[in-house]
Amino acid sequence: QVQLVESGGGSVQAGGSLTLSCAVSGYTYTTYGMAWFRQAPGKEREGVAGIDDVGNTIYTDSVKGRFTISKDNAKNTLYLQMNNLKPEDSAMYYCASSAHNLRPTIDPDYFRYWGQGTQVTVSS
After folding, report:
1. pLDDT tens sequence for the chain (124 residues)
2. Cα–Cα distance between 11 and 4 in angstroms, integer?
3. Whether the Cβ atoms of residue 19 and residue 80 lie closer than 8 Å to each other
4. Do residues 83 and 66 touch, judged by C-beta distance below 8 A?
5. What DSSP letter does each residue of the chain carry, written as one string?
6. How far apart are CA 76 and CA 25, in angstroms?
7. How far apart are CA 78 and CA 93, in angstroms?
8. Which is nearest to 79 in space by CA: 8, 12, 1?
């Protein structure tokens, strides 16, 4: 059974940093595309960052230069390093995995497996 479990969320002040982790079990995800998404109350789900099997990445414009997506294949874990956080980054953050290899994307239609989410709250 495929499971994605996020951790690392919390409350920080603007300008602070957090690192989110997504532990993957049930399959070896190294050849699959993965991504982070977020959803704030009353807003649509938004793709944040994506990574492919060889480490190519893609980011939504609002987080470029502040967030970094990465993965540790030995640990079957996906990460999102978030620096210089802003109040508008507050949301529930979800990791997702595709069921096949693909170029880095943050289009949710390409992702089959989803975690339960971890909350990030940034205060001004």
Report:
1. 889 999 999 999 999 999 999 999 887 656 689 999 999 999 999 999 999 988 999 999 999 999 999 999 889 999 999 999 999 999 999 999 998 888 999 999 999 999 999 999 999 9
2. 22
3. yes
4. yes
5. --EEEEE--EEEETT--EEEEEEEESS-GGGS-EEEEEE-TTS--EEEEEE-TT--EEE-GGGTTTEEEEEEGGGTEEEEEE-S--GGG-EEEEEEE-SS--S----GGG--EE---EEEEEE-
6. 7
7. 13
8. 8
Query: Which two three-digit tokens encode residue 87?
Result: 């109040």
The two structure tokens encoding residue 94: 């979800």
Give the burial class of 66: count Cβ atoms within 10 A of its Cβ; 0-12 exposed, 13-18 middle, 19 or more buried: middle
Which residues pair with residue 6 across a beta bridge? 22
What is the number of alpha carbons within 13 Å of residue 16 lying toward its C-beta? 16
Structure tokens at 109: 């239609």
How far is residue 95's CA from residue 42's CA, in Å, rounded to a whole number?
20
